[in-house]
Amino acid sequence: MSQPEAFGRYRVIRRLGSGSFATVWLAHDDLLNYPVAIKVLAENWAHQMDIQHRFLEEARILRQTDSTWLVAVHDVDVLPDGRPYMVMTYADQGSVADMVKRDHLPLDEALRLLTEIGQGITVLHNHGTIHRDIKPSNVLLQSSPVGQRVLVADLGFAKSIDEASGFTAAAGTPGYMSPEQSIPGGDLDVRSDVYSLGAVAYELLTGRQAPRQPVRTPPGRIRPGLPPALDELIMSALSADRESRPCDAKTFTDRVRAIRMEPELLPREEPWWQRHRKQWRRLATLGAALAMMVLTATSAYGAPSMSLTPIHSATHELRVDVPTEWVSELHLDMAARPTAAEAGAEPGLLATTDGDDWHATDKTSYGVFTTLMPGVRDLGRVTEPDRCGQPPAERRVDTPRWEGKVWEWSDCSGNGALAAATVHEPGEPRTVYLEIRQPDYRPGLTDTIIDGVRVYA
């Protein structure tokens, strides 16, 4: 289907995607000045009344449930050729499938997503509906003033629970559908969706699809350190025997929420240096002295081949990979330099060899500071040109993940090199601000650190 100019009053901008039954377009409601997604029945199904009925039934279910955890339908209409279309919420942050492909999710972030997906499915179950096609690509993400929202979408296979004994055709996506869904005429109930939730949980936690039946490898074997209760819950949800699964989405979601709230959960995911922070600080001075005895100044810290340690902000909004040798101290709420703070930089995450000397250019301190900014793109607004007694070199960042600028001082008052950067994902308003201090000038290491930054909210 070629790109149309408009659907009614909705001006078409570009195609978002297409599937077997429909194409989804990004459009703009010029009357209300608001972006929307428009789902249009595919041309080859225009005269199939059963497919048209399924398409409209999806719109009815979403409209009737009207939940914050489900994609909302704002309008429905019919094209001149008889094909129906629905006007829906536009999810500007893509899908959970996109997120899983981009990066390894922190445990708390994975459990947050899983809890909110489960809440959406619980709404459907309370409405008397089985989704039948729960998978990461059918869970969308939308930015909002209070943070990222999860929206369960694509109810093309959804059916009433009352009709569960009358399904005549297999429906769902292999790898996520329950064993009973693959049997035409199978007697389904809400536990089919529980199986799919287990499959989604497995992928969120491991980055891999759940194995085929019978599932024998728990996610904790792929990702060591997961709570045993979480392993047990997911393996029960993925049981071929539905009698062994949690009885519905609410029961599954309540258990995920309880596991997430356990006080010992976060320490499982903390790096060893953070779990033993006090002991590490006591040993930091001795370790640094021993290192300097056997290594030169240029190789003791910041060598291009050095190992990197991922660290996360207190809210898990940000992750950055920092050379392990620099992580003597971790500060989750370090104030930004005044010039950066005036431009909107919030207190952020600092991993360093010495937090007390971080802002002093005449002291030796190596590490990485990173935080979010509300939309500043111009590095000139957040750094001082004469910060290190000399003007910095300026260069652009232009990678598939990040756009922005880096200003670098190859020698900052005789105390190593300094880089300041503001980068943003293409098309995203939020900016990540970084400061990187290292023993000598290594722009390749600076680029590696920037490339390793991830924003989750």
UniProtKB/TrEMBL annotation:
Q: Which InterPro entries match?
A: Kinase-like_dom_sf (IPR011009), Prot_kinase_dom (IPR000719), Protein_kinase_ATP_BS (IPR017441)
Family matches, as SUPFAM superfamilies: Protein kinase-like (PK-like)
Q: Which PROSITE patterns match?
A: PROTEIN_KINASE_ATP (PS00107), PROTEIN_KINASE_DOM (PS50011)
The record lists ATP as bound by 39
Q: Which UniProt keywords apply?
A: ATP-binding, Kinase, Nucleotide-binding, Serine/threonine-protein kinase, Transferase
Report the EC number(s), separated by commas if there are several: 2.7.11.1
Q: Which residues cross the membrane?
A: none
* Pfam families, per database record: Pkinase (PF00069)
First-tier enzyme category under EC: transferase
The name on file for this protein is non-specific serine/threonine protein kinase
* One Gene Ontology molecular-function label: protein serine/threonine kinase activity
The answer to whether the entry has keyword ATP-binding is: yes
Location of the Protein kinase domain: 10-265
| SMART domains (UniProt xref) | S_TKc
